Amino acid sequence: MSLLGITLVAGVVSGIVLAGIVYAHATHGNKSPKARRLSPLLVAGADLLGFFGAYVFEDEVRYLYFRVIKPRAIAVTPYEALSVTLGSGLLVGIGALVSYLALSRNGTV
Questions:
Q1: Short-list 52, 38, 41, CA closest to 15
Q2: Predicted TM-score (pTM) of this structure
Q3: Is pLDDT of 104 > 70?
């Protein structure tokens, strides 16, 4: 499977999980039906865009990790390079989830 395929599958799976978390949170609060439907879609969409962005900007993400954050890499395995790309996408998804939770606590969402 290619890197794009692995990245998109991981984005879809984590997007479904994050959308489930957001939907479960939205149903327990006093949210409108529109907010209950829209919030999980926005978080899942941001997660999927995060994974796709990590794939598109793969060279920049790897440069940042292997040259700036971890400058003394002796050897880079393909799995380490893949984990950097997947970790970057997951970080964007978790950021979207945290943003939703912070906004819902303030009553914005």
A1: 41
A2: 0.84
A3: yes
Residue 8 identity: L
CA dist., res. 57 & res. 104, Å (int): 31
The pair of three-digit structure tokens given for residue 6, joined into one six-digit string: 């692995």
Q: Using CA atoms in the order 93, 95, 98, 104, what is the torsion angle rounded to 10 degrees?
A: -90
Cβ atoms of residues 11 and 89 within 8 Å: yes
CA angle, 107 then 89 then 81, to 5°: 160
**Cα–chain-centroid distance for residue 30?**
26
Say if CB 17 and CB 62 are below 8 A apart.
Answer: no
How many beta carbons lie within 10 A of that of residue 96, not counting itself? 22
pLDDT value, residue 66:
81
Q: Domains of the chain: which residue ranges?
A: 3-106
With cut-offs at 50, 70 and 90, classify the pLDDT of residue 2.
Answer: confident
